[in-house]
Structure formats: C-alpha cells, structure tokens
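ok so for the tutorial part 2 we go from a plain amino acid sequence to predicted structure tokens. step 1 is just haveing the sequence, like this:
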Amino acid sequence: MVHVLTREGKKQLEEKLNYYKTVRRVEVSKKIGAAREFGDLSENSEYDAAKEEQAQVEAEIREMEDILLTCQIIDKQEGSSDTVGIGSTVKLYDEEFDEELQYKILGSTESDPANGIISNISPVGSALLGHKKGDTIKVKMEGGEISYKILAIK
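step 2 — the prediction. this is what the tokens look like for a chain of 154 residues:
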C-alpha cells in the first residue's frame, strides 16, 4: 500500500519515529529493568506489562518506517483549484442537514476527521476526488446515501 503524505506530514512522521527510537525505547527498557528487580519473572505482572509495551512500541516503529519507505509525497495543490484533489480544502453543503462543512483531503496517515482532515480513501474523500465546484456528489454510507454540493475548492 502506498501512503500519501504532504511534506509536512512526512516531517512530522520522521520526528515521531525519532522520538520513539530515542525516547520511548529507553523508557520501556527502564521499565523492563525495574520490573526484573521485583524477582520471579514468571509471576511478575509489571514485567509482562513492560514487555507488552515494548512489543507495541517496536510494532509502531516498524509501521512508521514502512510508511516512510513507501510514501508518495504530494505537494499541496497550487494554482488551479478547479477540481478536487489530494491537498484540496473543500467547502460542501450537506443537503440533508442544511449545513456547510469544510474538509481538507490528505492521505490516510495524516487524516484527522475530528479536525476536518479526511483521507483520500474515506467514503467522502474518494467521492470528492476529481469533482468541480457546483457538482453534487452522493456518498453511500452505512445509514444510506448522503448528498453534498461542492461550494468551493481551495
């Protein structure tokens, strides 16, 4: 799977990876060392928890490394904002709820729906790609179909 990242998103992921390698690994290693001092490892819940945390940290490090190795960098759209693409900010009108919404479309690694950043592979994000201002799109969701009219593209 190719992960789509902005340059800023790649930089943030590199910083997070560095933090995990230089700080989180050391923290977990210290927890394991402290738990070993409690004695018998076969009945040591602190040791088991620390080893589980270590496995989780190492899995997250591997995932971040894989993303960085396979990522495709996109530049935020410049100039023409005629069609929706990755990097676009789209203002929509939700016909059912009579409200305006605004979403920025980025790759799944950078998505943050609570803050209006949706993935290009999400139902709404993928439905918007390639459309123009004035278009009405229909998005199939679990609860039915939702219609949005594209009001503006930045």
